[in-house]
Amino acid sequence: MSTRKANLTGFSPRKLAAAAGQPAKDPWARNEAWRYSGPFTRGNRFRGAFPGFGIAVVAFAGYMVYEQVFLSSAHDTHGAAAEHH
């Protein structure tokens, strides 16, 4: 027994697609080709989605390094002195 319901019209989209096959010449292929090439490729479309994000990441990483190298030791000495008093 099949778990699918019987189609009342007898029309089967799968049989139609199998019988139709691929078209010999797609009249819209030329009109659609520009969407997926050149500046409109997927990588190029998302590259400009977050302008300035790369610069912000580098600046934040630079600040974190600066804080760890130059400011961390100054905070540690004040914290240790406050604990002893």
TrEMBL record:
- GO process annotations (BP): electron transport chain; mitochondrial respiratory chain complex I assembly
Question: Record's PANTHER family?
Answer: NADH DEHYDROGENASE [UBIQUINONE] 1 BETA SUBCOMPLEX SUBUNIT 3, NADH-UBIQUINONE OXIDOREDUCTASE B12 SUBUNIT
Membrane topology of this protein: Single-pass membrane protein
Q: Sorted alphabetically, which InterPro entries does this protein's record hold? A: NDUFB3 (IPR012576)
Family the entry assigns: Belongs to the complex I NDUFB3 subunit family.
A Pfam family reported for this protein in Swiss-Prot or TrEMBL: NDUF_B12
Originating species: Friedmanniomyces endolithicus
Report TM segments: 48-66
- Key words, A-Z: Electron transport, Membrane, Mitochondrion, Mitochondrion inner membrane, Respiratory chain, Transmembrane, Transmembrane helix, Transport
Q: Where in the cell is it found?
A: Mitochondrion inner membrane
Tell me where on the tree of life, at the top rank, the source sits.
Eukaryota
This chain's function reads: Accessory subunit of the mitochondrial membrane respiratory chain NADH dehydrogenase (Complex I), that is believed not to be involved in catalysis. Complex I functions in the transfer of electrons from NADH to the respiratory chain. The immediate electron acceptor for the enzyme is believed to be ubiquinone.
The protein, known as: NADH-ubiquinone oxidoreductase B12 subunit
Q: What is one term from the GO cellular component aspect held by the record?
A: mitochondrial inner membrane
